[in-house]
Amino acid sequence: MGQYFVGSWYFFPVLIWALAWKGIALWKAARLGEKWWFVALLVINTVGILEIIYIFGFAKKKGVKNLMEHH
């Protein structure tokens, strides 16, 4: 089954999509000091779904909270 996926036309766009979201999510988790999120995002491969949920759900809420605490 793996050989079929690699030979498919959609392999590289999906790979680029997943790597872009994973990179952004890992960067945000590291900047916010969320070690458990960082490990989960690094280990679990969801083709960008978990990463998008983290970026627009959890990181956004914590990021706003942290900004307000520093002022």
Structure description:
With 71 residues, the chain is mostly helical. The chain has one domain (11-70). Helix content is 80%, strand content 0%. The protein has 4 helices and no strands. It has helices at 2-6, 11-31, 35-43, 49-70. Helix 2 runs antiparallel to helix 3 (35-43) and helix 2 packs parallel to helix 4. The longest helix is centred in the last third of the chain and has 22 residues, at 49-70. It is elongated, with a radius of gyration of 15 Å.
Strand content: under 5%
Instruction: Report on the biggest sheet.
Output: none
Number of strands: 0
Instruction: List the helices and strands in order.
Output: HHHH
- Helix share bin: over 70%
Shape: elongated
Integer-rounded radius of gyration: 15 Å
Number of domains: 1
How would you classify the helix and strand content by structural class? mainly alpha
Could you list the spans in which at least 5 consecutive residues all have pLDDT below 50? none
Span of the ends, CA to CA: 53 Å
Number of helices: 4
Secondary-structure map with pairings?
Layout (H helix, E strand, L loop, with lengths): L1 H5 L4 H21 L3 H9 L5 H22 L1
Helix pairs in contact: 2-3, 2-4
Quick rundown:
By secondary structure, the protein is mainly alpha-helical. Helix content is about 80%, strand content about 0%. The relative contact order is 0.14.
Provide the descriptors you would attach to this structure in a database record.
71 residues, mainly alpha, 4 helices, elongated
